[in-house]
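Progress note, project year one: complex with NAI.
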Amino acid sequence: MAEQDYDLIVVGAGPGGYVAAIRAAQLGLKTACVESRETLGGTCLNVGCIPSKAMLHASEMYHEAHSGALAKFGIDFKSVGLNLDQMQAEKTKAVSELTGGIEFLFKKNKVDWLKGRAAFTSANSIDVGGKSYTAKSILIATGSSVTPLPGVEIDQRIIVDSTGALALPKVPKHLVVIGGGVIGMELGSVWLRLGAEVTVVEYLDQILPGYDGEVRKEAAKIFKKQGFNIRTGTKVTGAIVNGGTATLTVEPAAGGASETIEADCVLVSIGRRPNTEGLALDKAGLATNARGQIEIGHDFQTSVPGIYAVGDVVPGPMLAHKAEDEGLAAADFIAGGTGIVNHDVIPGVVYTYPEIASVGLTEEQAKERGEVKVGKFPMMANSRAKTNRDTDGFVKVVADAKTDRVLGVHIIASIAGSMIAEAAVAMEFGATSEDIAYTCHAHPTHAEALKEAAMAVTGKPIHM
Ligand code: FAD
Ligand code: NAI
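Model obtained:
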């Protein structure tokens, strides 16, 4: 075979692609990464994880100050104003610091950034902006984009996707969120806190699909208490925009009489679909499955030897840390080693207030596989949560009834996103609920609620 331009070309510089490129370069491979955006970092850094968390953090601080929630702690504000332009500017600054950081890491590790859109011309060559590049291996990490909803056209003005909803120039009077999943509840929270009336229209009979049933029920209760209007079992069948107003037609998901809802902003967040359009996969001998994903084997290799894929474009949860871990492991395989990702232990976090976090099997999934024991502990009985006045939520541990091995942990708590890491480590090491119960946890911490929930699996919590 003729000399190749690179050992590895990665297509896409999101968490899957940029991490794979850096790891491959560290392992001695001559590596390039193609990215068509103006900055590196993919959806996550540019228009996903990072800007959404910046807006969630800032809006939470505003809401705490503005709502008078801090008065009980003796903190009185004479007046609290919202400078949305400044809030957006600080978000943009955080994003550019992080995307710039990836550019620095590419230079440091000698990863070439090929700027432009990549399309396959064969199994080992791609075209970027009219220039051809060859490589021994090619890794597809092109991520995902919002799933469109027929009849509800995104104009990024009145009807927006998550990217538009992260950059609204003013607080909407009435925001209708179509889809009560992770994006809907996170971005709905941002604008609710900043003063919008927020209605969530969800097709299924509960919000947050994929999460534990009890968690979904409790989360909906908490969100309603916060002021969300949540309409489950309802579908949007169309939208008409007239000036600054959208009129949505909705009807019961099971069928029935339709009605209209008016809004000055509509967020379409009904899921995301893999990005493969324009990649000319057929030129490489590749095809997608029925869900538009690229299928891979345990070594992240596709059906075509030498072509690998990771992240949102392959099956599994669409999460940045899952993409990153797959990128690392794929690079290890490509360099001749072995990479490992335990897909059974991938935590998921919804960064609302309180946070919602989960790892492993839900109680429903675990019960389908065999007999389980469940331990639950309310945050109301956790001393730190009581002290901080953030007592909403609970910790639930699902364990195998025979072996006591922990199968899943589900948490609603102010800092559930940080607490879930302990559960993930425990599960990775094959812990039993007893292992967690006998591990000394610092007092007073929210993490003690996990210990108590683990104790509750065998019926012996102390503070309940
Ligand atoms: P991406 O990050 O999508 O990156 C793919 C890159 O490939 C893009 O930059 C794209 O421009 C580029 N590309 C595509 N096709 C081509 C081509 N042909 N040529 C050149 N370049 C190409 N996940 C979490 O874990 N935590 C969160 O808090 C979180 N928050 C989110 C909030 C929002 C609003 C959204 C939308 C998503 C969020 N996610 C979150 C999901 C997370 O962003 C994705 O799971 C993650 O970015 C997937 O990484 P990836 O590398 O597979 O793809
Ligand atoms: P999602 O899959 O989480 O939720 C979509 C929701 O829309 C579902 O509840 C679904 O039932 C509903 N829906 C679908 N069609 C509908 C219709 N016609 N009318 C009403 N409701 C409808 O998808 P979402 O929120 O768009 O997020 C996409 C991905 O991004 C997720 O897979 C998630 O993993 C990732 N993400 C992760 C975050 C995190 O980790 N904190 C934050 C944001 C996104």
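The chain has three domains: 6-146+273-334, 159-270, 348-456.
Residues 6-146+273-334 form a domain with the FAD/NAD(P)-binding domain fold (CATH 3.50.50.60).
No further modelling is planned for this target in the current period.
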